[in-house]
Amino acid sequence: MQGMPILALWPSIINRLCVTTNNQTGFLCDNRETCIPASEVCDTRKNCANGEDEQKALCSDLPKSLPGHLIFYCNNRRFWIYADKRCNGFNDCGDCSDEIGPQANCPPCGTQSWRCTLVVFYDYCTCIPRSLCRDGIQHCFDWSDEYLCTR
Ligand SMILES: [Ca+2]
Ligand SMILES: [Ca+2]
Ligand SMILES: [Ca+2]
């Protein structure tokens, strides 16, 4: 890869910012129509028709080789996640910094979720799916998932 014109590649990569149908940060394929979620870039599967989401210029030195909009750095900056894993309800960083706090800047729990302080971390941070309400297992410190929350 010696002498590769990295700088010349950058404009085409920067212009690939897009938003998926699920309102997630994404990567625009060469056809300028397909917008794939950030986490499908460099996952070794070709999601764009020409495989441009797996091109070496993007994937050779993760996460540095990825455009900034595709990644989110956790509180512990040694760890990073794909941008579409921020505010998705799951504790992808391991310390919930992708779900709670100013860096993540997530909207409040949606109507499909219940907000509480969790007893045990499970895979969640503050918003739990309503399927965990009244399931006979305490998830919230104040037991609100078992007594207040409705499915
Ligand atoms: Ca891919
Ligand atoms: Ca997450
Ligand atoms: Ca529960």
Describe this structure in words.
- The chain is α+β, with helices and mostly antiparallel strands and 151 residues long.
- The chain folds into 2 domains: 6-85, no CATH class; 113-147, no CATH class.
- The chain is 11% helix and 15% strand.
- The chain is built from 3 helices and 7 strands, in the order H-E-E-E-H-E-E-E-E-H.
- The protein has helices spanning 6-14, 56-59, 144-147; strands spanning 17-19, 25-28, 35-37, 71-73, 80-82, 113-115, 127-129.
- Bound molecules: calcium ion (3 copies).
- One calcium ion (CA) binds at residues 40-41, 43, 45-47, 53-54.
List keywords for this structure.
binds calcium ion, 3-stranded antiparallel beta sheet, 7 strands, alpha+beta, 2 domains, 151 residues, disordered N terminus
Give a short synopsis of this structure:
The chain is an alpha+beta fold.
